[in-house]
Design brief:
With 348 residues, the protein is an alpha/beta fold. 34% of the residues lie in helices and 17% in strands.
Length: 348
């Protein structure tokens, strides 16, 4: 039985990958000095290298809302552990600025979410914030808002629609950071399984790509299975149980989020295999950090839920007030290990 590596290295990476691709439609022209300098995305990193640090979100704090009729419609795909923290960030920032928000939950149904957005349009809300259920099918959301001249902002999941601001983090970086640390802990060798989120979401696609890219950079490693657990803990557990029962051998689990990582941990514990497998996730939720403190989770990647929510409100209010908003407002990812966990306790 292999003993886990106990020598943890302190790695503090504050990273943002992405390029400021343009600006949303403005009511007034902007001077060149108002546009942020383009940034090179961290798309290719050598094994063990650190992604380049980059700027914090470029938005300045918006002016307080003085019109009591300003209402922002907010559409969520669900209210899981992480997204509920994004909701908290939205509500807190809206309260600070004096804006009213109406938050709805599509319960993971794309047709329901589109209907909710169309309802916001018919109600004449001042702006719309969306965490899309399916990033590949988000164009109708933007079209409906634009047809009514209502500003729209995407948060957390990026559908890559030109002219519509996205406030969130660069998904490829999350998978890359996670797998780089897992590869380091595994000594650059071993069989890897990947628990993927909803494959219709760019976050799942790019985080999985990050895992695969790092594995490809380590000749002693290979991916032996990839399966979609749809961001869900129970599905992550069932998938891992099935892998174990089928006799699949693996020593690393690269999960696209903490919920699926926690599910994998449950399955490995039940099979008395957890001490033979390194498990990683993304989000740095409170439960994931508790699992890390217990020695069950090796690595996670902090995604600033409240920062994304707050930034989404800032972008929406700026658009309402006719101000400049870049197409991409990056909220940095940061690697979390037992060495720096205290910096993130309570953050999500």
């Amino acid at each position: 039985m292999r003993v886990r590596i106990a020598a943890w290295r302190l790695t503090t990476l504050a990273v943002v990958a992405g390029m400021f691709l343009g600006v949303s439609s403005l009511t007034t022209a902007q001077s060149p000095s108002e546009s942020p300098a383009p940034m090179s995305p961290a798309m290719s990193m050598a094994p063990g290298s650190e992604a380049p640090a980059s700027a914090a979100p470029t938005l300045r704090p918006p002016d307080p809302v003085t019109d009591s009729s300003v209402t922002i419609g907010v559409a969520f795909p669900n209210s899981d552990t992480f997204l509920s923290r994004v909701q908290d960030g939205i509500q807190a920032r809206a309260d600070e600025l004096g804006a009213k928000v109406v938050i709805v939950d599509a319960k993971d149904d794309g047709a329901t979410q589109l209907n909710q957005i169309e309802n916001f349009v018919s109600q004449g809300v001042s702006a719309i914030i969306v965490v899309p259920y399916d990033t590949s099918a988000a164009q109708p959301y933007a079209d409906a808002a634009k047809a009514a001249n209502i500003p729209i902002v995407f948060v957390n999941r990026n559908p890559l629609i030109a002219g519509v601001p996205y406030v969130g983090s660069a998904s490829l970086v999350a998978g890359t950071l996670e797998m780089q640390e897992l590869a380091k802990l595994a000594g650059g060798a071993g069989d890897v399984v990947i628990l993927e989120g909803q494959v219709s979401n760019e976050a799942a696609v790019l985080r999985t790509q990050g895992c695969n890219d790092v594995v490809a950079q380590n000749p002693g490693m290979k991916v032996v299975a990839t399966q979609a657990g749809d961001w869900d803990r129970a599905k992550g557990q069932t998938i891992t149980e099935n892998w174990i029962q089928s006799g699949l051998q693996f020593s690393v689990v690269c999960a696209n989020n903490d919920e699926m990582a926690l599910g994998a941990i449950n399955a490995l514990k039940e099979a008395n295999l957890l001490d033979q497998v390194f498990v990683g996730g993304v989000d740095a939720t409170s439960e994931a950090l508790a699992a890390m403190q217990a020695g069950d989770l090796e690595v996670t990647v902090f995604q600033d839920a409240k920062g994304q929510g707050s930034g989404g409100v800032d972008a929406a209010v700026d658009l309402i007030q006719g101000k400049f908003v870049p197409d991409l407002v990056d909220i940095p990812y940061q690697l979390v290990t037992p060495a720096n966990i205290n910096d993130f306790l309570g953050a999500n």
